[in-house]
Amino acid sequence: xxxxxxxxxxxxxxxxxxxxxxxxxxxxxxxxxxxxxxxxxxxxxxxxxxxxxxxxxxxxxxxxxxxxxxxxxxxxxxxxxxxxxxxxxxxxxxxxxxxxxxxxxxxxxxxxxxxxxxxxxxxxxxxxxxxxxxxxxxxxxxxxxxxxxxxxxxxxxxxxxxxxxxxxxxxxxxxxxxxxxxxxxxx
Amino acid sequence: xxxxxxxxxxxxxxxxxxxxxxxxxxxxxxxxxxxxxxxxxxxxxxxxxxxxxxxxxxxxxxxxxxxxxxxxxxxxxxxxxxxxxxxxxxxxxxxxxxxxxxxxxxxxxxxxxxxxxxxxxxxxxxxxxxxxxxxxxxxxxxxxxxxxxxxxxxxxxxxxxxxxxxxxxxxxxxxxxxxxxxxxxxx
DNA sequence: TATTGTTATACTCTATAACTATA
DNA sequence: TATAGTTATAGAGTATAACAATA
Lengths: 187, 187
What we know:
Two copies of one chain form a homodimer.
Chain A: H1 13-16, H2 22-43, H3 54-66, E1 70-71, H4 72-79, H5 83-95, E2 99-103, E3 111-115, H6 117-138, H7 143-163
Antiparallel strand pairs in A: 1-3, 2-3
The first copy, chain A, binds a DNA duplex (23 and 23 nucleotides) through α5.
């Protein structure tokens, strides 16, 4: 049973990367791996393979969540893709009969994307399964730790939203250690 | 300044999705968003745009971390891609002069992938920048919370590695709420 | 027989640039 | 002018299946 220990970085990490923080990088690496493991479990077959890419399924989920048809540019912006990519995504979904394009009643520049009954079935089937997997994945974490975890994550996101508006600091040069053969792939 | 609050799911969430856990889904959603925000900050230009995809850069990082040339199938397995995809990835990197294929000295089935000096320069420049961004992103989280966070993440990963070996439980049906127009996109 | 890697094929995602239609 | 969307073009990533070479 691999991968059940906390991933650590080497003791000389902060020597090799001036400006880095060992504990911070450990948090980042473990965050990434945990997130990947959750995704993998959610997508593990047989998940009644809907055969949709993450972006395509997310498009359906966004439409379901909105509870009403949306114009393409709104979906594109929530999905963080370009308008041309959105066109192509909607093309794919339309080909599979999961969405329909219909003209906006008043603004003739816009095209409203509607979920079809087939798509609604896909979403209604997938969402409960996804949330059930998540419930199972987190089930061994006590409720009090969940609140603590949420608060730590929010602290990080708040800091990131500040950083996003600032210029990037110059990076300091890597200091090479003497040659050795230990595996440093965790970095 | 958007997105600095903990993302919550609606109060009737566990009614709508039997078998789901509200706090668990909140953890999963916030984990995903935090992870995305870290990636976005790491990739924020001008990051001396190396122009490499995530997989391509990770391939270089894996080779750098190993400290020695590796056969393709080893990289493929760490990267979680097929051997054919690995061939295509190495093709791309070779075209850009970042890796070289050389025959394995003893096992003639294998091809060892070597980093070129150019690639080493890319990695030596990117890794310190990445770890510096991470240090900044986590900087407002007290050291004791970092350990707590790591431990919670490991608890989740341990549970996931157990689940991965088990059959998927049947999902219960979604219960539709009365129609309303609130935005439920956080799900 | 099993392992390693490649080729062939196909599809999706993604982006930029140029364009049309509408507001 | 600005907004919404499409088309054209291009490149990358991904997978499966069939195959060759080697162990």
